[in-house]
Amino acid sequence: MRNGISFGLKAKFMLVSTLLVALTSITWGGWFYLNESEHLMERLEANGRLMLDSIQPPIIDAILYERLGVIEENAGLLDNFIEQIVENRELQVVYAFITDTHGKVLAHSDYREFGKTYRDPLTAAALTRNQFYGHTALLPSVGEIYDMAMPLQVAGKSWGALRVGVSLARVEKEKELMAREIILFSVLFFLIGNVVFYVVGLTMSRPLLTLSQAMSEVNHHSLDAVPLPAYMHRHDEIGKLQQSFSEMLERLKKAEQERQGALTRLMQNEKMATVGKLVAGVAHEINNPLMVMSTSLFHLEKKVQPELVKYISHHKEGVQRIESIVRQLTDFSRAGTLDLQRVASDQFFQEAAGFATLALKKFEVRFQSSNNADATLLLIDKGKMHQVVLNLLLNAANASPLGGLVQLLAYLEDGSYCLAVHDQGGGIAPGDKERIFELFYTTKPGGDGSGIGLAISKSIIEMHKGVITCESRPGDTTFLIRIPLQKEADHG
Ligand SMILES: Nc1ncnc2c1ncn2[C@@H]1O[C@H](COP(=O)(O)OP(=O)(O)OP(=O)(O)O)[C@@H](O)[C@H]1O
Ligand SMILES: [Mg+2]
Q1: Out of 136-150, 246-260, 275-289, 349-363, least confident range
Q2: Distance of CA 236 to CAs 8, 120, 207, 226, 231, Å?
Q3: Which residues form a coiled coil (predicted)?
Q4: pLDDT beyond 80 at 73
């Protein structure tokens, strides 16, 4: 188990996206604010300059006229221009004044400044370098202003300077408004961005969660019932993940089936081995008293009164039945080893059909055999294979109705020698189908069957590396044996 805080994929995605959105909002907002502030200042400067440019020629004219004596000095003409500048509605003019070439004030918006000499750097620069100058400055009584100096110059000759200070209050107000709008917009962008990313994160993580839930429900018992979300149609990573998951489930199912099969086989083999040992011992012990009983009955039969003979024959039947079971069990105990020989398939089939005809004589059924296999050499334990075929034929005959058809067919298919035993009996109930190959499983009543035949047959066929299967429905039952055609070495 891991200690500490651990974040899910969705939380990580949300964290990164929130940071990203916040960073984008701040960067974009900051950039926009700076850019727009610069524009506002540029606009202010352009407006100021335009105003100074337009008013400069008449001011120069007025100074010239005064110098030439065309108009009276101090006639108030320059004051009119200053007034005109101060009254400008577009710019909030804080002060305006005109100086002569020595910086002496000729007209000022504040009449107390009249006659003073200005030697500040801005005025000096405008007078000496004949250039427009402007910069922001802090005026204690007003606050921030944009300070401008325009040289009054005609044909390269300077007549003084025009100085105007414009309040930045309006610009600041606009900037403040803009900042509010930007913050509002950024917050909106942040919120919408987060909502969008949340939805995207949810859309991405939900299939993963559903898949992981489906995965957590996987265990041995639920393999077939694991609910699979329908993401297979998706062509993205989620679709691929689901596909891999389904494939993994299929592999697990197959592995589980194989495991179950192997487990059943193992248990069956163990059961067989145990029973085999037990049977060998018991059979040996039973055989001796049985032989004594048979011989005694043989002698008794000749000597008892005729009315008692029927009882003797009942005894004989019982003893024969016990002998048959003991024989079968002894065979079963010896089923663990094979005596393999090369046998021509035709010869094997002929013998099997011959035994069958004899064995089925006591049944009222029709027997048919048909050999459709091309002649080949089989590597089999002939005796045990005959025993298997006989078991199947006896079962078929037992199950058949009166006059029913019992068939024995041989053919080659997919590299295997196939033997099919077919009958028209009532078939095997679906519930019994799983169990008929189990040792001692029988449906025959009253000790008619011992339930050994199919168990022995299956064991023998598997020792030949073959399979025995059964298809059954009422009136149509077929047991099929497949023995692979292979070399002697393969049997180990
Ligand atoms: N052809 C068949 N049609 C219907 N049921 C069958 C057929 N073959 C086998 N079975 C069923 O399978 C069971 C097991 O068969 P199995 O041969 O192992 O034992 P059995 O025939 O009952 O006894 P025995 O050991 O004497 O052969 C039978 O009891 C029967 O119910
Ligand atoms: Mg049988």
Answers
A1: 275-289
A2: 21, 72, 12, 22, 9
A3: 238-272
A4: no
Q: Measured from the CB, is residue 457 less than 6 Å from ligand 1?
A: no
**9-176: which CATH topology?**
Beta-Lactamase (3.30.450)
Q: What was the pLDDT predicted at 335?
A: 60
Residue-wise pLDDT tens digits, 88-138: 888 899 999 999 999 999 999 998 988 899 988 889 888 888 888 999 999
CATH superfamily to which 338-491 belongs? Histidine kinase-like ATPase, C-terminal domain (3.30.565.10)
Closest among 478, 438, 472 to 458, alpha carbons compared: 438
Q: How many CA atoms lie within 13 A of 378 on its CB side?
A: 29
* The two domains 9-176 and 338-491 share their CATH topology (first three levels equal): no
Q: Name the more confident of 220 and 29.
A: 29
- Tell which one of 395, 437, 456, 459 to mutate to probe ligand 1, the residue whose CB is within 8 A of the most ligand atoms: 395
Residue extents of the structural domains in the chain: 9-176, 338-491
Token digits for 338?
């094979």
Residue 2, φ and ψ in degrees, nearest 5: -95, 140
Establish whether residue 24 lines the binding site of ligand 1, counting it when its CB lies within 6 angstroms of any ligand atom. Answer: no
Q: Whose CA is nearest to atom 5 of ligand 1?
A: 428
Question: Hey, what amino acid is at 421?
Answer: V
- Per-residue pLDDT tens over the stretch 347-360: 999 999 998 998 89
